[in-house]
What we know:
mainly beta; five-stranded antiparallel β-sheet
Amino acid sequence: MKYQILNSPAVPNMPWQECKKENLDIPVWRYEQNPIINRNPVKGVARIFNSAVVPYEGKFIGVFRAERKDGIPFIYFGRSEDGIKWDFDEDRIEFVDENGESFMPSYAYDPRLVKIDDTYYAIWCQDAYGASIGMAKTTDFKTWTRLENPFLPFNRNAVIFPRKINDKYMLLSRPSDSGHTPFGDIYISESPDLTYWGKHRHVMGKTELWWESVKIGAGAAPIETSEGWLLFYHGVTGTCNGFVYSIGGAILDKDCPSKVKYRCSTFLLTPEEWYEERGFVPNVCFPCATIHDSETGRIAIYYGCADSYVSLAFTTVDQIVDYIKEHSIVRESDIEEGRR
Length: 340
Ligand code: BMA
């Protein structure tokens, strides 16, 4: 391999399918059997999408955005042998406070999941007198203990880095407004203890490029590579019929991730297939997780489709890093530290 995936386990049984197309313009290809999670996936749930998974004890587990049949989204827990076929608990995850008392948000959506040392952290969007970020930790997937909400409203799209950087936990997020925010950049914040967050820095903003001209938001937890932190994010454009969500890619500086080293000027994936173009909210590709194998450099991207399904797309660290570098355009607001 030309580039390495660092500080990450080998996952030899990760979902994978070779690319069957020749001369791919962009080196990201869809799983042929997409979508992997269809409508009505479990009792009481109409749709699962925008969800996050991790390898666990030779298998896979995940936290899933489940839109229930009462119209309220909550987070459900799921397990899989192969990362493709998922079994879900019939009940939502019940969060508790530090005293073990029930501490449920009134709704919860777009979860991400990351392992830091021996603890798994879920982070999502919820109500805190306005859309904000919620967080919980678990070591056994039975007890999920909520942490303090990291930010004031309004904020969405929060993603934690899989390790401390310069001895601090790092979190990407997107400050927003109370509605379907028509603006939005990615910021980074740091914390010594996962309770107090500060040293907020601007990482990258929307651009003049059409596919990401309205807003952007962090997607999957960044992957540490020999070139820096590989970030899959979503970029949004506006059309006369509403927003279109595509997947973009950037590489952040390894020690100072508020600095963008490379930023791909083209999208990596945009709605093209029926399950991306057609659904509860059409034209949405919304990445929330990757599974990656440090031995082979294979990367599987899990993304929500049209607020209705979950799908898989594949790439390799060599192909995607080369592609992002070859198509990179960075602006002053990308490469600076982001402190004003
Ligand atoms: C965003 C979030 C996502 C959703 C997207 C498209 O604001 O709510 O969960 O996928 O809109 O509807």
